[in-house]
Amino acid sequence: MDAKEIDYYSLGFDFIETKEMFVSNYEDGNWDKGKLKPFGNFEISPAACVLNYGQGIFEGMKALRTRKGETVLFRPKENARRFNDSADRLLMPNYNTNDFVSAVKEVVKANEDYIPPYDSGGALYIRPLMIGTGPIVGVKPAKEYKLIIFTVPVGPYFPEGFKGIDLEITKKYTRAAPGGTGASKTCCNYAGSMLPAKETKEKGFAQVIFLDAVHMEFIDEVGTANFFAVINGTLVTPKTAGTILPGITRKSILELASKKIGMKTEERDVSYKELFEDSCTEVFCSGTAAVVTPIKSVALDDKKRIFSEGEPGEFTRKIYELLIGIQRLDAEDEFGWIEKV
Ligand code: PLP
Ligand code: COI
């Protein structure tokens, strides 16, 4: 789509084709240098490992336009590291972290015309993807891989935006079990989350909250974001013990809460029952796509806890403003999280 034809002020989170993608191929134990190509289809063997056995991983990042018109990335090396952690879990080759960040910058520059303006609140979403392309029939890793980085201009992930979302706790489905792939950003984790999301949306909820697969009691995360609650004035979030994605936004929020707000933070098991007690005053979720999204209400079967009717809680607003302030360079980048493109 021509960059000039896009209405950047009414974007959702839908695919829009941009101009260029970055492609690098892995063969005989090495990655080639990689290069930009016009966005488009490529051929793949029907026996490719990713098509048959789901050997694929990805990342999600954003390039933002600042008030001054600069283009910036948020903690891109963290994504590069997590990408390699996910690769390790699926026996895929690592990609040099500096080369990863350089390739991301290259593809952002090539699609600069598609970065939504500062005042639209949108972003150029960046999707690094690695797939096992080598043909395989026994269940084992491919010998050949492809890294692709493409971009999409996006608005808010949840159409409700900062007004907040209604969530349902699911006891029917789980997302990840101990020893599984929950802590990695593997494509298959998301395939399995589509049915729970569809069913809950049909009931009027924006997403599900997944519980731990062993006890069906402790909160893991929201389908595409990490979970936070303010309980007795402490910021609480489920600990990363192998079944949740260690979110980069999550890690940043924990740091902002303790260093900028002086709030006590805890990474621990969080029972869903705590959400129905008066001591729990605010809940929200976080992620690259979700940023900080307030949770208006949480339901389980016929029980419902309403946290807000439209105005997000005071802490949720504060943490959102602190985070987005740094991300868009409206505030000083005092933690060194921003990289200019
Ligand atoms: N949890 C899941 C399942 C996700 O897909 C995401 C998004 O990447 C997150 C959490 C949040 O991670 P991050 O803050 O690094 O985007
Ligand atoms: C992200 O926040 O970047 C995600 O990956 C969530 C979703 C779009 C898969």
Give a quick precis of the structure.
This protein is an alpha+beta fold and 341 residues long.
Sequence-ordered SSE layout with sheet pairings:
Elements: E1 20-27, E2 30-31, E3 35-38, H1 49-53, E4 56-58, E5 61-65, E6 71-74, H2 76-89, H3 97-110, E7 123-132, E8 145-154, E9 165-170, H4 187-191, H5 194-202, E10 207-211, E11 219-222, E12 226-231, E13 234-238, H6 248-260, E14 265-268, E15 280-287, E16 291-300, E17 303-306, H7 314-327, E18 338-340
Parallel strand pairs: 9-10, 9-16, 13-14
Antiparallel strand pairs: 1-2, 1-3, 1-8, 4-7, 5-6, 5-7, 6-18, 7-8, 10-11, 12-13, 12-15, 15-16, 16-17
The chain binds pyridoxal-5'-phosphate and 2-OXO-4-methylpentanoic acid.
2-OXO-4-methylpentanoic acid binds at residues 60, 190, 224, 287-289.
How big is the Rg?
20 Å
- What does the main sheet amount to? 9 strands, antiparallel
Distinct ligand kinds: pyridoxal-5'-phosphate, 2-OXO-4-methylpentanoic acid
CATH hierarchy: architecture of the largest domain: Alpha-Beta Barrel
Q: Strand fraction band?
A: 25-35%
Apparent shape? globular
Category from helices, strands and their pairing? alpha+beta
H/E topology pattern? EEEHEEEHHEEEHHEEEEHEEEEHE
CATH class of the largest domain: Alpha Beta
Total beta-strand segments: 18
For the record, the count of structural domains works out to: 2
Overview of the molecule:
The chain has 341 residues and is of the alpha+beta class. The protein folds into two domains: 3-154, 2-Layer Sandwich (D-amino Acid Aminotransferase, Chain A, domain 1), CATH 3.30.470; 165-333, D-amino Acid Aminotransferase, Chain A, domain 2, CATH 3.20.10. Helix content is 22%, strand content 30%. It has seven helices and 18 strands. It has helices at 49-53, 76-89, 97-110, 187-191, 194-202, 248-260, 314-327; strands spanning 20-27, 30-31, 35-38, 56-58, 61-65, 71-74, 123-132, 145-154, 165-170, 207-211, 219-222, 226-231, 234-238, 265-268, 280-287, 291-300, 303-306, 338-340. The strands form two sheets. Strands 1, 2, 3, 4, 5, 6, 7, 8 and 18 form a nine-stranded antiparallel beta sheet that branches. Strands 9, 10, 11, 12, 13, 14, 15, 16 and 17 form a nine-stranded mixed beta sheet that branches. Strand 10 and strand 11 form a beta hairpin. Helix 2 (76-89) packs across helix 3 (97-110). The structure holds pyridoxal-5'-phosphate and 2-OXO-4-methylpentanoic acid. Pyridoxal-5'-phosphate binds at residues 60, 221, 224-226, 245, 247-250, 286-288.
